[in-house]
Amino acid sequence: MTIIDKTADVPAPRGSNDESGPLLEVRDLHVEFHTRDGVAKAVNGVNYSVSAGETLAVLGESGSGKSVTAQAVMGILDMPPGRIPKGEIFFRGQDMLKMSNEERRQIRGQKIAMIFQDALSSLNPVLSVGYQLGEMFRVHQGLSKKDAKAKAIALMDRVRIPAAKERVNDYPHMFSGGMRQRIMIAMALALEPDLIIADEPTTALDVTVQAQVMDLLAELQRDFNMGLILITHDLGVVADVADKIAVMYAGRIVETAPVHEIYKRPAHPYTKGLLESIPRLDQKGQELYAIKGLPPNLLHVPSGCAFNPRCTMAQDICRTEVPALRPVTEQDGTELVGRGSACHFWKETIHG
Amino acid sequence: MAELDKESVDATPNVTEVATVNAATDTEAVAALDAPVAQGEPILQVRNLVKHFPLTQGILFKKQVGAVKAVDGISFDLYQGETLGIVGESGCGKSTVAKLLMTLERATAGEVFYKGQDITKLSGRALKAVRRNIQMVFQDPYTSLNPRMTVGDIIGETFEIHPEAAPKGERRRKVQDLLDVVGLNPEYINRYPHQFSGGQRQRIGIARGLALNPEIIICDEPVSALDVSVQAQVINLMEKLQDEFNLSYLFIAHDLSIVRHISDRVGVMYLGKMAEIGTDTQIYDHPTHPYTQALLSAVPVPDPDAREGRERIILSGDVPSPANPPSGCRFRTRCWKAQDKCATEVPLLAIPERFKASDTPAAHESACHFAEEKDVVHAA
């Protein structure tokens, strides 16, 4: 999207204008935390966008800034100690960072909703799930308690919780992990948002339950034509559901690509390392490829490219100059749509 | 002791006899433990191991109203120098098995033979000697290291409990050697756990497990709490140490691709029972138990091109409660093959009849009445 209508002050209703443009666009976002030991730069210039019906997977290790970016988008960052010194977050063409708290509250839950990782600690243990689900309708739509409960039951049915009517008054601890995660999904879906941010939605679940939950999420996304930002570190889950991928490292996006491309030809040494460290059949009994070293401390991010101390291709330029996210092309210069890499030696990585 | 229902005892698989050692005194028992085991011989033999946790009611007059059947009759062998992977969903009893082998929990019934001695019956000096030889690496490196102790104290504590392992003057040097072995700087000996990253902490946990020169290390989800890029480092370290010290690993994990990489044999558990056990190729490429097939098909494959073509078996519902497991085959409530027979008869863990004669990889132990091969997408 190139033209941003900053004069429009009413949020665009679903499906009217901006149908072609992205739903959410994050531009040059910076987030830092002021701690006793110094300033931790958690996010250092992140750009990404999601359109309706599209799934963006944000891949990264702990401390890479993937969750902090999502929290900034949701507007649930703890400020202080957090601070957003720079950047814009456009939702349907409007910069959310310039909105008042009340305007943001209107968007949160109704337009953008979030699914958290740990369902047990995200749900209130002393309130029944029906009450917590109904809260969305009572607060945002002003429904009565009775109507809200009826809606809650319908939602629980929607996410296929068996015997929803009988279980609506149960408390979170009475549900299994997979069921709790369904309740989290139901809560996020309650007001039919345009965009859902799922922060490691299945990390705490077993693989068989993970498959159920991811299937459900994909189906609901299709039905409502929602945008989905999936935050994860699991390369398998990403391959299963994502349309495009953004790989984060030390608060920066180091590579972006459509899902089919990145697994075949990674254009950043970090992505390449991650893919190579997956145990493969033909390597049984051999040593696994391992990225050496440790993820950086955000208080002391290495100068130049943050990945340089762990990189096998690092040269002098990597230690001094921060590589920008540049478009990646074929050897003959043909553009590869949607691909970018923040590496001085992306050419060698992808073609070499 | 919880009341045992007959079925769990009946489900004896066709496993080899255990050559037991009958030691009259502690001294004899300890001496027998020092005997070496030949490569490829079983070092640990588990027979019909059962652990029921009682459910009680009432405060003053506690009355047992039932039992959580966490482990309900499992048998397997662990051979010298091999890695046996145990996989299964949470709540299937993997970690309880680990605790039973460590004798951190007392078994309700069944035996664990270590070099021919039943360690569930041992106590005192003999038990201490066994514990020296079976060590554990825990899942969470953040909570399994005491934050108030230095690394040197954490690893050195093992020598205080087993003083015969290293004379007093040498302990510090030994701890430094251990740090070096696991790839940490020996100068870090006076640091505290919070000064290390997750991967480094897990290395400290591994050094502690190695300190007494054990023969068996039980690893309960040793890498699942680590970052993806660090997991491979720790797995490589564990493989290197296995070669160097001729260790036997019992490797409990839920990440099927890592288990496949490190294991020689793999056992699949479901609700306190072993569903299927065999070599890694037998389990991953020729699974015959429906649960194994469902588990493997559910693993997301890191290849986007595979997502359209693959057939996924999505199990409905959750794992039933181990306090009240289904009759007959425990998997029948979620199984697409279930018939009347499955509700009444407990399937034995044995090589299925139809594969017995042939020499196919499908001929491995599987606890299903209707065991057959199914080509599921391999978890690479």
Description of the molecule:
The complex is a heterodimer of chains A (352) and B (380). Chain A is an alpha/beta fold. Chain A has 2 domains: 24-242, P-loop containing nucleotide triphosphate hydrolases (Rossmann fold); 272-351, no CATH class. Chain A has 13 helices and 12 strands. The radius of gyration of chain A is 21 Å and the shape is globular. Chain B is of the alpha/beta class and 380 residues long. Helix content of chain B is 32%, strand content 20%. Chain B has helices at 6-10, 26-34, 94-101, 124-133, 151-161, 171-181, 198-210, 228-245, 256-262, 280-285, 290-298, 306-309, 340-344, 353-356, and strands spanning 42-57, 63-79, 83-87, 109-114, 117-118, 134-137, 216-220, 248-252, 265-270, 273-279, 365-366. The longest helix of chain B has 18 residues, at 228-245. Chain B: Residues 44-296 form the ABC transporter domain. Chain B: GO terms for molecular function: ATP binding.
Structural class label of chain B:
alpha/beta
CATH class group of the largest domain in chain A:
Alpha Beta
What is the CA-based Rg of chain B, rounded? 22 Å
Principal-axis shape of chain B equals globular
> What ranges of chain B have pLDDT less than 50 throughout 5 or more consecutive residues?
1-12
Largest sheet of chain B: 7 strands, mixed
CATH topology of the largest domain in chain A: Rossmann fold
Secondary structure category of chain A: alpha/beta
Write down the secondary-structure element order of chain A.
EEEHEEHEHHHHHEHEHEEHHHEEH
Total strands of chain A: the figure is 12
Largest interface: A-B, 46 and 44 residues
| Name of the level-1 CATH class of the largest domain in chain B | Alpha Beta
The end-to-end span of chain B amounts to 43 Å
Sheet with most strands: strand arrangement of chain B: 6-7-8-3-9-10-11
pLDDT < 50 stretches of chain A: 1-18
| CATH-level-4 superfamily name of the largest domain in chain B | P-loop containing nucleotide triphosphate hydrolases
Q: Helical element count of chain A?
A: 13
How many runs of DSSP E, i.e. beta strands of chain B? 11
Main sheet record of chain A: 8 strands, mixed
Q: Rg of chain A to the nearest angstrom?
A: 21 Å
Helix content, binned percent of chain A:
25-40%
Pfam families (chain B): ABC_tran, oligo_HPY
Keywords (chain B): ATP-binding, Nucleotide-binding, Transport
Protein name (chain B): ABC transporter ATP-binding protein
Family (chain B): Belongs to the ABC transporter superfamily.
